[in-house]
Amino acid sequence: MNRQILIADLLKRYGSSAVCEGKEAPVLIRPMNQSSTEDDRYLCTAPFDFCPKTGDRLQCMEHVYTVLRCDGVFAEGHRLYTWAVLELQDGWGR
Questions:
Q1: What is the pLDDT of residue 70?
Q2: Vertex 25, ends 23 and 27: CA angle to 5°?
Q3: Mean of the pLDDT values across residues 35-57?
Q4: Phi/psi of residue 12, nearest 5 degrees
Q5: Residue 49 pLDDT exceeds 80
């Protein structure tokens, strides 16, 4: 099993379903700043083939986020997974 598939399988097992621009994928979303409960920025880890663009809206677990930045982690010229910085737009606490 290659690393791309291994990471995608781990995200499928432990992640939550997200939808961005009509495409669905399992993702992990966690706060960027662990010490502050008021910060509305989050780091998203997604499979290699899930590639949102800056400005896209991502929905996950009744929350709506805006993609601020997105890129991939690469090894030997292949994308292993995608990461994105998200800003919470609505949901709990809003």
A1: 96
A2: 135
A3: 88
A4: -65, -40
A5: yes
Q: Are 32 and 41 in contact (CB under 8 A)?
A: yes
Domain segments of the chain: what residues?
A: 3-90
Q: Which CATH architecture has domain 3-90?
A: Beta Barrel (2.40)
DSSP state string for 10-68: HHHHHSEEEEETTEEEEEEEEES-TT-SS--EEEEEEETT----TT-EEEETTEEEEEE
Question: CA 84, 13, 18, 56: dihedral to nearest 10 degrees?
Answer: 20
Q: What CA–CA distance (Å, rounded) separates 34 from 91?
A: 19
Q: Are 52 and 71 in contact (CB under 8 A)?
A: no
Three-class SS state of 73: strand
Average pLDDT, the chain: 90
- Quote the tokens at residue 42: 């989050």
CA–CA separation, 54 and 65 (whole Å): 11
